[in-house]
Amino acid sequence: MFSKFLPTISIFAFLILWQSLAIFLHSNLLPSPENVARIFWQHCESGELPHHLSVTLWRLVVSFVISMFLGCTIGIALGLNKKLNAFFDNWLVIFLNVPALVTVILCYVWFGLTESAAILAVVLNKVPNVIVTLREGTRALDKELLNMAKSYRFSRVKTLLHVILPQLHPFLMSATRSGLALIWKIILLVELLGRSDGMGYQLHLFFQWFDIASILAYTVAFIGVIQILEFIVLKPLDNLALRWR
Amino acid sequence: MTTVHIQIHEKKHFGAENSTIQNFNLTLNAGEFVCLVGQSGCGKTTLLNSIAGLDSHFSGNIQIGNKTQNPKIGFVFQRPCLLPWRTVRENIELVFENQNAIPKKQIDELLNLMQLTNYANAYPKQLSEGMKRRVSIIRAFAINPDLLLMDEPFVSLDAPMAREVRELLQQLWQNRPHTVLFVTHDLREAIALADKLVFLTSCPMRVLKEIDVSIPREKRDAQNVEKFREQLIQNYSELRLLF
After folding, report:
1. Which CATH architecture has domain A53-241?
2. Subunit contact A166:B85, Cβ cutoff 8 A
3. Which helix (H) or strand (E) holds B25?
4. What's the alpha-carbon Rg for chain B, to the nearest Å?
5. Which chain B residues are Cβ-neighbours of A163 within 8 angstroms?
6. Spatial separation of the C-alpha atoms in residues B133 and A125, rounded to whole Å
């Protein structure tokens, strides 16, 4: 019974600690939770925060969808085909290790400070992670279930939908969760370096003004959105897919 | 019911020097229950995989009936190979090519014959090993196969459970007599089930001897099966090396 309330208790404990430190330090560098909440509300009322948040979310959705589609397709193909994997394996390691900052700068230099360059930079950073996760998942597929599908003459689509994808579910969810976290961090970098709107652009402005309360207010807003996404979309999806367990 | 001609000139595993199967010729008459009996590792599973189209790297010809279209093959693997995320009924229904024309009544009958009616909506993890084997047998029978391949389907079951599932299989097959190729290394099991026993050599695998089981099905109790087995080993000296 007590353990049911542990997550809520831990959040309250954190807020109390934060409030105590803010009172103790009494500095603009650590505004109190109450102050952050007030600033958050002001940015919401002015319409500034919803605008920049929606711009960033739009970029997140587009780059996430493209990254997952490309990553899953290539990852499954590499997991199923040894020759293809041998051909691309080194490139995958190289792309995994190219710093995000380098990709963002190169995309902006080569393609200009445009929306598509920004999305491309995010996608190039995320796709290798999805490929690796899905490739490992595909390698771990139950060969006997695939043989069963083949012996009963399942079509490719039927095999993919009913035999392969359910087995890849944990890997897909892992790529989705880590993907959302990684993409949002890269998007901030992309917006900071080359866009005139979005959360990253705003955070850059607040940094120049040393406005820590606004930085924290924007961060809280985004964390809130990701949590809502987790509880409204990802968790129910997980429960639905794993109801047989 | 369909006649099946199997002719494999040579089958080698990738990179191997010696053939796994060589000059293998076998004909299964329509509606016949044939048991392939051979030692473990002699290539029985490889043969079934080649027949089912899971392994096409061999020279030879497999003719199932004289149909121009793809023959329907039911396959009961050593493991039940059920999809854990689908219920018993959903697992059976999935093997139908046309998902809009699933013979629900026939599936209900099969579930009833195999005593699984109450488990139609259960997930595989809720079933015992014996029940899972029964589901995989129903799945294979449900499509009315031209040829039914069974690869030691009772191999990891304990003796009473294996006997129970075997008896249910016999009832089901007598109810719906398809052409069956059943692989086993257990001679007693083969005698209890088969119309014809086909003994196999190892390295490479080929047909050593074909023997019809002369005991009527209704008289195949443990005692008669054992008697027939002893006669076989006595009469055919070449089989002594196998058992």
Report:
1. Orthogonal Bundle (1.10)
2. yes
3. strand B21-28
4. 18
5. 83
6. 47
Instruction: Residue B70: list chain A partners with CB under 8 A.
Output: 153
Instruction: Give the percent of chain A with pLDDT over 70.
Output: 100
The number of angstroms, rounded, from the C-alpha of A23 to the middle of its chain's C-alpha atoms is 34
CB atoms A245 and B83 under 8 Å: no
**Where exactly are the structural domains of chain A?**
53-241
Place of tokens 């030691």: B152
Note whether B83 contacts A145, CB cutoff 8 Å. Answer: yes
Q: How far apart are CA A129 and CA A119, in angstroms?
A: 16
Instruction: Report chain A residues whose CB lies below 8 A from the CB of B74.
Output: 152
How far is it, in rounded angstroms, from Cα B167 to Cα B151?
A: 17
Residues A129/A182, Cβ–Cβ less than 8 Å: yes
Q: What phi and psi values does residue A38 have, to the nearest 5 degrees?
A: -65, -45
Strands B4-11 and B59-64: antiparallel
Q: Is there a contact between B86 and A244 if contact means CB atoms under 8 Å apart?
A: yes
pLDDT surpassing 70 at residue B195: yes
Domain ranges of chain B: 4-83+146-239
When scoring A142, A150, A153 by the number of chain B Cβ atoms within 10 A, the one with the most, hence best to mutate, is A153
Angle B75-B76-B82 from CA coordinates, rounded to 5°: 105
Interface test with B, best of A152, A167, A244 (most B CBs within 10 A): A152
pLDDT (mean) for B173-193: 91
Q: What is the largest CA-CA distance in chain A?
A: 72
Q: Using CA coordinates, name the residue in chain B closest to A244.
A: B85
Q: What is the ipTM of this complex?
A: 0.88
pLDDT at B218: 85
pLDDT band at A223 (very low <50, low <70, confident <90, very high): confident
Judged by CB atoms closer than 8 Å, whether chains meet at B75 and A244 is answered as no
Taking domain B4-83+146-239, whether its CATH number is 3.40.50.300 is answered by yes
Show residues of chain B in contact with A82, CB under 8 Å. Answer: none
Decide if A144 and B81 are in contact by the 8 Å CB cutoff. Answer: yes
